[in-house]
Amino acid sequence: MNVRRLIPTTAVAGAVALGLMAVSACSGSDAAEGGDDGKLKVVASFYPMQYLAEQIGGANVSVTTLTKPGVEPHDLELGPRQTAELNDSGLILYLKGIQPAVDDAIAGSGAEHKVDAATLTTLESHGTGSGHDHGHEGGGHEEAAHEDEHGHESEAGADPHLWLDPAKYAEVAEGVGKALGKADPDHAADYTKNADALAAKLNALDAEFAQGLKDAKTRTFITTHSAFGYLAERYDLDQEGIAGVDPESEPSPARIKELQTIAKEEKVTTVFFETLASDRTAKTLAEDTGLRTDVLDPLEGITDRSKGDDYMEVMRSNLAALQKALGAE
């Protein structure tokens, strides 16, 4: 899984304890009913969940995010105030497997409504190189959980980066609409309407990608962060990750040699890096192979370096970058 440095269990436990103390004076009914303004309090784990909550919740919700702009989501450490937000929320929207510290804190929170976006669609497994054998269906959520190479429990090695496939993200949007309706029945119709509208926009974006990439001269792209397995599978592309799901890890000499061969054979033009992690590895490989570098944003957060102000804009920037790199312009 795309998990880097785990937060020690004792630190998480301490944060949870402090958070519980901080909200001990708050009544459980306040969290369920909403804040003083009558809006449902929604806590989102990181940007892709925040975007869903804001778009679908609209004027009926007050959304806060645990991962502030510019913070690498996988490395997030929760403080007492953030843990208090969890316990004082009407609904928590998160994606299990991305942020282990968040997963642990949510498991220990007293919030009544907790929604793991991974349960709203079917997850799949994707390796460092997707190739034409893009992995297999992960069996949804019936497969037994296990500990990945970082010691964090995940579901059968499933890839959590579902939001980078607009069609799969649309499925999640529909599920979020239903979840908001359960947490706030008085506005269920609004949530359903907004979820349907967002799903329609995402499915239209899916069609843009399919049309924009169908005539690509090459189907292979190289990226530091193997976050694009769902996108590659959806549009019949081949993702080759430099160092797997961890963009900060160092690739082996054998992997570098393999990528040099792939770049030559598949007529690769560009090595992609992302905005929230170092571009050192990508630039080194590009220099060694005579390739260009460009940004392919995994959309784990929006900052002033992002090529767009929201999910839709950045995804269209990603499409333009892929079209240029794959010769599909």
What would you say this structure looks like, in words?
The protein has 329 residues and is α/β, with parallel strands linked by helices. The chain has 2 domains: 1-119, Nitrogenase molybdenum iron protein domain (Rossmann fold); 207-326, Rossmann fold, CATH 3.40.50. 41% of the residues lie in helices and 12% in strands. The protein has 11 helices and 10 strands. It has a 4-stranded parallel sheet, with helices on both faces. A 4-stranded parallel sheet has the order 8-7-9-10, with helices on both faces. Helix 6 runs antiparallel to helix 7. The longest helix has 26 residues, at 188-213. Mean pLDDT is 81; it is low at 1-33 and 130-154.
Task: Give short descriptive properties of this protein.
329 residues, alpha/beta, Rossmann fold, 2 domains, 12% strand
